[in-house]
Amino acid sequence: MGDDGRMHAMEDDESAAADQIRAIDIYPLSNYYFGSKEPLIFKDKTLADRVIRMKSNYAAYGLRTSVEAVLLVELFKHPHVLLLQIRNSIFSLPGGRLRPNESDIDGLKRKLSRKLSANGSPDASDWEVGDCLGTWWRPDFETLLNPYLSNNVKGAKECTKLFLVKLPESRKFIVPKNLKLIAVPLCQLHENHKMYGPVISGIPQLLSKFSFNIIET
């Protein structure tokens, strides 16, 4: 193949790669209203309490399946992820555990409405749940979540699925008083395991297959 042929082949490969990159529309943080409501009651005061509860629930129901949302906004011309902050130190994505036989999409909409809408409104039709970005596994009760499940693990204890949730141009977020909803830039999350844990710090890599279309209003 001559130089011209190789050049055309490279251009075709680049064009094909560009076609595979999907765009995500994101809107400025200033488009959104943030209010508060009655605080949530947390079942676990310590990590040990959480492990005890997980063991009890696993004995009763088996594998714990959780769903979490990646919500994106724009601030300073850069994509930010909305995170819930607990006690000024613990960060989490909005979401939670599914009910028995509840679908991923229905469960995530229910959890988003409970934590981010006024009075935990049961009407979850306005949450637009998109791609599943990744699945994480907890092989036993005490270890961190992993983005894979080893063949030698029998009976994983928890499965967590991350979904991209597209936000509308504007909306009201009504958050429990004992939680904060904060916007954190992708560049701050990247591989920052110590502060955000393995799941949240892995979000920038999961989003690398997308481009960001910032909508100015």
Automatic annotation (TrEMBL):
GO MF annotations, alphabetized: mRNA binding
Top-level division of the source organism's lineage: Eukaryota
Gene: LOC111465348
InterPro entries, alphabetized: Cleav_polyA_spec_factor_su5, NUDIX_hydrolase-like_dom_sf, NUDIX_hydrolase_dom
Nudix hydrolase domain span: 62-188
Stated name of the protein: Pre-mRNA cleavage factor Im 25 kDa subunit
Major localization class: nucleus
One Pfam family from the record: NUDIX_2
Subunit structure: Homodimer. Component of the cleavage factor Im (CFIm) complex.
Family: Belongs to the Nudix hydrolase family. CPSF5 subfamily.
Stated role: Component of the cleavage factor Im (CFIm) complex that plays a key role in pre-mRNA 3'-processing. Involved in association with CPSF6 or CPSF7 in pre-MRNA 3'-end poly(A) site cleavage and poly(A) addition. NUDT21/CPSF5 binds to cleavage and polyadenylation RNA substrates. The homodimer mediates simultaneous sequence-specific recognition of two 5'-UGUA-3' elements within the pre-mRNA. Binds to, but does not hydrolyze mono- and di-adenosine nucleotides. May have a role in mRNA export.
UniProt key word Nucleus: yes
Compartment(s) of residence: Nucleus
Organismal lineage: Eukaryota, Viridiplantae, Streptophyta, Embryophyta, Tracheophyta
Gene Ontology CC terms, in alphabetical order: mRNA cleavage factor complex
CDD domains: NUDIX_Cfim25_Nudt21 (cd18871)
Keywords recorded for this protein, A-Z: mRNA processing, Nucleus, RNA-binding
